[in-house]
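Troubleshooting entry. Yesterday's outputs looked truncated, so today I'm pasting the complete records for two proteins to confirm everything comes through intact. If either block looks cut off, that's the bug. Protein one:
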Amino acid sequence: MLGEKSMPIVSVQKLEDADKDADSLNKFVNGAETESVKTRLNVEYPTLANAIHQIMETGGFEPFATETALLASVPTITKKAAKALDTKKVWLWDGSKWNDTGLSELDLAKKEIKISSEKAAIDFVSKYTSANDELLLAITDDEGNLTWLQVDKQTGLPTEAVIDVLRDINQTSVTDEQIYTENNERVAIALKDKNGNLTALTVREEDGMFIDAVIENIGERLNIVIPDQEPAQVPDDFRTYDVAPNINILKSISAGVVRHINNTALPASPYYFVDSLGQGARIYLPTNYDDSTPIPLVMVFDGVTSGTGGAPAPTIRAEYLELLDSGVALCKSQAHANSYGSPKCMQDYLEVFKKACEIAPIGAVILVGNSMGGIAAQNALLTNTIPNVAGLYLTDPTYSLLQRYENGRKSEIDSAYEIAADGSDYAEKTHGYDPALRHWSHYRGIPIRVLASSKDSAIDLALHGQKLKTYLADHNDVDLTDTGTTGHNTADRFDSADLLAFIQKVTKI
């Protein structure tokens, strides 16, 4: 029509394209959050719901695999936030550079954990430890805070803090009651299960070792013979356990080498001193020795009436002194006279041992016990008083403290162990000091030599030396000679050549 503007002609192709674009727009607006839209130009975009979902998943930030990649990128918009997935940190673009927005949630979590651990450490210290605790050993964490692994300086046992922690562990408890096992072992720590039964983590008081029941259980598992059970094959060289050289031994040998290098004069021999309990002691050093080589030490425990007790210097049999020419040192303490291996006697001999290690390079130790001193020598081993014991040499020895107590030696034993006159506290005062009541494992598999007589009317061989041999036969090399001669402590029981042969056997000198 004249006067009207003409309209552009819409081609069929454009109508078809518009229809396809309408379909794409419809799917973009109404599609699911898991879908994408592919346009007629073959370009794929997420639906609106999908795009919003992705933004929510990334916390509203553009994600980058690494912080390095993020910082290298240059956004096309003025304000933009992005997140590094390796460090979890968020960075903000201000139009010219990326800006750190502070600690990431990972850093914040680490900080919270550190604060919590520090608070837990403070709570632990306040709950379980005391300012009066003297520690021999304490394990700390990497921040220097005490953990529950602590050892008391005085006893060498776990501290009260450790015991308290164990009590607090779920389904376990540490008993407060005083417990004795069937073998008359006094228990130091008894860890119980949730039913109140003792576990294998039950330790006796006198030496910190497992109780006999645990050792026997281990023996059954390893097919090791246990007395009163069916015999099993036991290797000739079987030993229950080995003891590492005591620190006094190591210090003694190293100090000897230093003295030798410096040409330090050797101490006088015999060396006499009085220990902290007022008991005199003597140490005899070998003839023509020097400090460069460790020497074996024979510790002599004699019988009743062999010493007076107190400060006077004790005497050692002439037969034993012959060993000095063979490179052997000897020592003896008054040891409170008729001690029967009491705790005071053990303290006396421990001080003699330490003094010997101080003045000479001491190596292996041989315990020599005669008569009453048989119990004392055995106790020095069984109570772990003397370390590095290589052998036990006994002449006319006593073995059962109770047998002596009930057969004429009550007064001496009462005095030595400070037992009540009526004997009511005998078991308590002598606990751990009667060799006949100790488990075979306490003898550590060391060689033992017994020189005695079945015609000894004072000490019945069958009740002492022979009984010891029988009990240890499957575990120790026990060599017993019955001299067959009449009497007690006769000359044939003190054979220096026999003793020297034994020393050479157990020390390999």
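Protein two, checking that the full record survives here as well:
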Amino acid sequence: MKNIIKYIYAIIISILYVSCNSTECTLSIEQIAQLKQIRFYKYENGNIKVKHEKEGTFFNDKLVGFYEGHVDLGIDFDKNTFNSIVSDNGKTVVINTKIIILNSKNGFITNQRYQEVGSFTNEERAQLDKEANEKILEECKNNNGFEEAKINSEQEMIKILKSMGFENITINFQQF
């Protein structure tokens, strides 16, 4: 498995080296050398709106959050979501992998602003942020983001593996 990953890195570095000038390539090659993840799909939404209201006898408070964000989907080589089996003849490879969310650690929101009428706590704003994160992830799922990432990753991995000399390539994806 580690040899396949090294070959994939080498091919990506070669493609980068040929496709850019030497000043720009130095940084890109260093970044690729540290590669641990590959993003195959990015779902973006710049128009997420979440609302919270508090009503009482003498007040009607409203908090509205406006958000921009994205969900990155791909393969993480460090999280055991990728392994391979190469046949004895070296022409057949079976890849077992899984598309995962790459940017879930810190949430999906990249920009937010609030409109407030009344007073709200930081906890209430944090709850609104949580709802916005859940909303963008649900939208990504409903818009076939995982399926798109699977298709893109399969196409790219087949290209890379064929350029490495493999003739029979099977890619199995675990459930999302």
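Both blocks look complete. Sanity check on protein two: Confidence is low (pLDDT under 50) at residues 15-33.
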